[in-house]
Structures are given as C-alpha cells and as structure tokens.
Amino acid sequence: MDPSTTVTQRRDAFVRGLYGLHYAVTSDNPRRSGDARRALARLRRSFSGGQQEAEAYDVVFPYEPPEREQKSWLLVAGLFALHPHGNTVRGRSLGTAMRDLVEKRPSAARRFTQLLSVDDTALPHYLRQAVQLLRSGDVAIDFHRLLTDLVDMQGSAEETHRVRLRWARDYHRPKRTPKATSSTESEPAEGVVAEPVDA
Known about the structure:
Oligomer: single chain
Number of strands: 0
Largest sheet: none
Distance between the termini: 40 Å
Structural class: mainly alpha
Shape: globular
Radius of gyration: 20 Å
Number of helices: 9
C-alpha cells in the first residue's frame, strides 16, 4: 500500500477487501469466484490456531496492519469468513445485530450475556460463536465497526469496558417502530406535507 495512507484508510481498505471476497464468490468469472472461495476457506482454517493462523496472512498483511492491531485484523478476517455478506448494514454494532437475532431466537440471549462478561483471552471464542449464530439467523453485522471496536478494546481495561457497555446499550435499546395513526386523526389536507414518521 501507499506508505502515506493513514491507519484509518488501511482499516477501511482491509474491510472493503473482505466484502470484496463476498461479491467475488458470486462473480460470473469462474476464476475470480474460485479464488474468493479458497481465500474464505483459508480464513476459516486460520481459526484452528497455531500454524493455521498463517492461512490468513496473505489476505490481511498486504493492508499493513499496525503491529499492535494485527491480532484484531486477523480475528475479524476469520469472523468474516464465517459469515460473509455484503456491506449493507453500515453502523450496525454487535449489540444491535444480537438484539435482532434474539428477536428470532430468544435462546441466543444467553450467549450474548456470556460474551459481555468473558475475559479478553476467551473473547475470540465467544465472538466466533456469536458470529456463527448471526449467520444461522441471517443477521448481518458491520465488520468495519467490529474491527474498530476490537482495536479500541486493546487500549486499556477501561476502554474494553466502554466498548462492551456500548454493545450492551445497543442490545437493550428498544427498536424504533413507526407511530400508529389513530382512526380519529384526520388525514393531512391535500397539498400539505405530513410530518415524517420516525424510522
């Protein structure tokens, strides 16, 4: 990469590259599709630990992650390979995604509670379980935001706690629903624009 790029730009390029693997899998070009499938398979194998982590290096290291962040980048690459999808849910945090999943599968609530309370060494295992559950429920997550959160968690115990509290707030935040219109309310007069309904 261009040595003048910032860390933020490198993170963006890396996550775009991951989303690109998803789109490449559905390509009409058999070679491109095959290459993407093999790359995702290598990233999944990288979770096996030990020497298997090297399976992810050729996908992650061309984006030049800072040394202190490389474990988070490798983790996100493996998580993406477990649940590859397009970049369609910008801003959806892990907490919001798990809330949406629990609406479909209430039993997943216990896994999220466990994830919020485990120590840092166990977090990758519980994140892997959470992402597999999200895939089984067809609930997407913003991998760029997940990477940012994981990098922030490397700062200090206080920052780690702050990120987990954000996930918990997003999880417990009520979903906004359109306001119901009562039968006694009159329709807006012709030519009058009604106030927008909260999304």
